[in-house]
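As a warm-up, study this chain.
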Amino acid sequence: MKKISFIKEKCVGCKSCMLACSIKHHEDFSWKQARLKIEKNKDEYSLSVCIQCQHKNCFKICPKNAIEDIGGGILKVDWDLCIGCGLCVDACEYNGIWIASRVDKALKCDLCEGKPACVEACIAGALVLEDISGGD
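Now compare it with the structure written out below.
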């Protein structure tokens, strides 16, 4: 299994990761369309992103089966099935999924099929794709 790790001390707040994500998935330069969020809290940055947890509460609660397991512990939202009810958002313990305001559909990281655009775009090296085994 893989997940995106965040080294907050390296983050410069440029949000190039968010733009890269938006372009990759929506062909649009929009922070609102990104499947991760970088926010400044006091003097440091924080990251909100799906950590590809083992619990998979979002997957279990979706009434339309719009969240699918694409293998390797990665879940992906099928926008054709998603009704934007927000149950997945409420079920996530890690603040890793939210509803996109433009389209009322769930947004969550799917690791770009193993080559996350956000990690590649991070100029500061604050985002790292790491292999994990067994835990959240």
